[in-house]
Amino acid sequence: MELVNAQIDKQKEYLTQLDQAIGDGDHGINMTRGFKEVIQKIHQTTYDDIGKLFQDVGMVLVSKVGGASGPLYGTAFIKAGQVLKGKPEITINELGQAFQESVNGIKLRGKSQIGDKTMLDVWEPVTKYIQQNGNTLNIRELISYAREQMEHTKELEAKKGRASFLGKRSIGHLDPGAVSSCILFETLCSILLEENLTKE
Amino acid sequence: MKKLINNPEQVVRDMIDGMVLAHPDKLKNLPGTNVMIRAHAPVQGKVALVSGGGSGHEPSHAGYVGVGMLDAAVAGEVFTSPTPDQILEAIKAVDTGNGVLLIIKNYSGDLMNFEMAAELAEAEGIQVAKVVVNDDVAVENSTYTTGRRGIAGTVFVHKIAGALAEKGASLEEVEQVANKVIQHVRSMGVAFTPCTVPAAGKPSFEIGETEMEIGIGIHGEPGTHRTAMASADEIADILLSRILDDMKLSPGDQVAVMINGLGGTPLMELYILNKKVSQILKNKDISVYNTYVGEYMTAIEMAGCSITLLKLDDQLIELLEAPADTIAWKN
User: Fold this and answer.
1) What is the predicted pLDDT for the residue at A200?
2) What pLDDT band is residue B145 in, cutting at 50, 70 and 90?
3) B248/B260 Cα distance (integer angstroms)
């Protein structure tokens, strides 16, 4: 989470710039505010339950981010937390199951589907990719897959959120939510990579 | 960025404190929140109205809290929907057991946060109804399921639903009249300059000295298309013709007109715009019952304006004229 916070903070202006192009220009600001609060919250507790950690992260995001990103990211973490409840450590397969619940939650809350040019365009394929590859998952390949999915949102016409008001003018711009989601997955991957390295 | 602020992260807090200090007879801040409620809330025996949205649209939304209009307004960060916990606090603070109507503008973020708050309130046994304002015809023709945005027409929803609630109507009746206003209100806007969100520190978009952005929203988000700058008369024509195409008014119909400034347009220019608007309506034999010229729903310091028409009937006229006493609307 600290790495996510650091990455989001680093990319704050980039996310805001992306959002200024096709939205209202607050995505970086809101995400940074949310994850800063997440760090404060999780520093007050020690977690031996990953589900509880995800739940707390989700609750903080819902109450501190605002906009569309708050409910969507918050729901994603809360739903994943329900799957991971009581688990002190998790396997790749369990992570895949948890993210599937996140994807279901994002779809329900945002009434969105794949191809609408939203964060879902990263979340859904990445989750499928994790599930399909299971324990043979190659982390480096996952990172490049997530980036490809994010890049793909450039070609899409927005159907949801404020960018949809632009219609065809949204084509050619990356979706800010897809980019922040990609940052999230990349950070997760970098942690998984480091863990692998220490095991070797 | 030259702004009269102390700290970009403190603007909403500082604004709320300053507002309460200026109007202690009308407003109070719910401690520990960005919620503003009537100074004498909750009002017993009445359906409560809660609205809100991002800050930066002043006098929306706290400017409409008071007798005859809203019971509470929830201020989000600048241009960012408030969060469900804050909306829930507002609902709990003003509910007296008669139910609460949430007035939501049609933006994904506002919808999701207000829906989550409504779910939480219902779980606590509070009766909640929701209406979604979508008056902006600029985005009508987009095929997107997100639909039209909610902009200045929201103020008429506050006024008319608020008046009916003040008379002691039921939650269902108040919801119905709010939906009636939503069906009969249409708006469209234009921007000449961008605005700067304090925390971003730079303008939301760039626009050439001789250009204007048609169909702008109220968040500095780009409009539907960009054209060469035109005269006030031409702009009145462009905006009003889109609204009239959508409303299908007949000769003899009565409307209320709102000429709304977006924060950076002098009143002089709004009156110039209104001259042409009233001429066009007169030529079409549409009678103007009342005209409101001023800043009702702004976008920080963006130069530009929006035009709103509300088709009236006897019930809506009576409620529009009913007493109201808020910072930004008095009858």
Assistant:
1) 37
2) very low
3) 22
- Tokens 């981010």 correspond to A65
Q: What is the DSSP string of B61-105?
A: TGGGBSBTSBSEEEEEEETSPPPHHHHHHHHHHH--SS-EEEEEE
pLDDT in tens, B178-224: 999 999 999 999 999 999 999 888 888 888 999 999 988 788 777 77
pTM (2 d.p.): 0.92
In this prediction, residue A169 carries a pLDDT of 83
pLDDT attached to residue B75: 98
Dihedral sign for Cα atoms in the order A126, A130, A132, A136: positive
Mean pLDDT confidence for A124-135: 93
Residue tagged 């709304």 (tokens): B260
Mean pLDDT of A24-50: 88
Q: Which chain B residue has its CA at the smallest distance from A65's CA?
A: B83
Contact list in A for residue B200 (CB cut-off 8 A) is: 16, 20, 25-26, 29
Instruction: Give the pairing of strands B72-78 and B48-55.
Output: parallel
* Dihedral pair phi/psi, residue B287, rounded to 5°: -95, 140
Active site members of B? 57, 219
Find all residues with CB under 8 Å of B43, minimum gap 6, and list them.
B71, B94, B96
User: What distance in Å separates residue B83's CA from the closest CA in chain A?
Assistant: 5
**Chain A / chain B CB contacts < 8 angstroms:** 120
CB nearest B107 (choices: A110, A162, A166): A162
Query: Does the structure's ipTM exceed the value 0.90?
Result: no
